[in-house]
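ugh finaly. both done.
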Amino acid sequence: MSNLLKSKRFVVRQSLIGKDTNVEVSFKNGKTITYSHDKAFEIMKSSLEAMNCWLKYKSYTATNNIPKVLRETEAVISSEQVEVETTDEVETEVELVA
């Protein structure tokens, strides 16, 4: 049985490798993606090992989406889009008269 980690960003960490962890990410745009951490690592391994963040922190994160290399692969378990309501903020200019 795999572990489920809930997050607000995509993450690959050395400490999670081999732990049979699935990660459920809820991005700000309403998209929720669940992926296999181990499969994501295997697909990204050569790229990760060349990145400074991986060498220094043993971690890679992405805030807005999963990396393109993982989309449409067996690493992605599920993906769903939820409508997010946004409000239009109106900016007004005020002219100051001295």
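ok and the 2nd:
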Amino acid sequence: MKTVALLAAALATVALAGCGGGAGGGSGSGSGSGSGSGSGGRLSKSDYRAKLRAIGHEAQQAGADIQKGLGAKTVAELHTRLLAFAATSQHLSDEVAALKPPKDAEAANTELVNGEHDSAQAIRAAAAATQNLKTPQAVIAYLQKNLDNAKGPHEIDDALAKLRNLGYTTSS
């Protein structure tokens, strides 16, 4: 379960990081006046934080859904949840890719895009490889064996650490 939990945790981390740690996120709202002016249409820091926060809510739901999948009673149910998780991860990748972050966040944003994309690709491949297994436990065992070193969650964690160091996220 470590692998699926790692992938779910990666999405949940995006959710938590995007939320800016909760109540202290006042700097992410209100001031859109600097957005794009003189910066080639780039988002301001506060607008970028707000976009990450919105994307984070989607990631949080996907993480909760895949956690439920760990208790699936059938392979078909788990397969469906894996495909939904992969689709959400790809959607998140596309959403983050569409952002024009502040210049100092560009590399971390790209790494976050790559991490979400790589996670989606790995989960789709695993879902295809496991759809004919007999039990959900066999699927989970396959995921543990074959996704332990998936690069997507590691890329996501690294990108979020960089964004945190730059002041775009506040949670750990």
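summary for the 2nd one i guess: The two ends are 22 Å apart (CA to CA).
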